[in-house]
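Morning run. Coffee first, then this:
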Amino acid sequence: MTIYLADDDEDDRIFFRDAFSDIPSDSEISEFTNGVALLKALHDASELPDVIFLDLNMPLMDGFECLADIRDIKKFSKIPVIIYSTSFHKKEVERLQEMGATKYLKKPSSFNQLKTLLNKSLQDVKALQSSKKDTSEQSFLVE
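And here it is:
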C-alpha cells in the first residue's frame, strides 16, 4: 500500500512513521511538508497513492485547500483522503466531510492509540478498495 502523508510538523511525521513501522503491513510512506508539495507529487506520480493522510494546518497550502484541489481533479478524486489533525472543531469536521474527505482522524497523544487508529484506518481503506463501497457506509470521525 502506498501512503502519502502531508504534515508540516516533523515530530508528528516521525510519530506517524514510527507507528506505521509497528503495524504489520506492506506499506510505503512518502512524506510532504505542505499541500503544494503533495499536489506536485500527485501530478508527477506514475502510480497514485492508495491513501493520503492530510494535516489541516500547513504553510503555503493548508489541508482545506489541498483537499479541494484533490477532489476537483478527476484522476485524484477517488483517492481516499484521511484528515489527520490536532484541530478539532465540529463545524470544520462537517465541512471536511462535505468537501469529500474520507475520514477525520484526530491526532492522539499516545503512541499505542495512534497505532490502533492507523491500523483501523488502513483496514477501512483496504475494505473500500476491495469492495468498491461508498465511503458513507463507514464512520467518518475516528478518535
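Helices lie at 10-21, 35-44, 63-72, 90-99, 111-131. Good start to the day.
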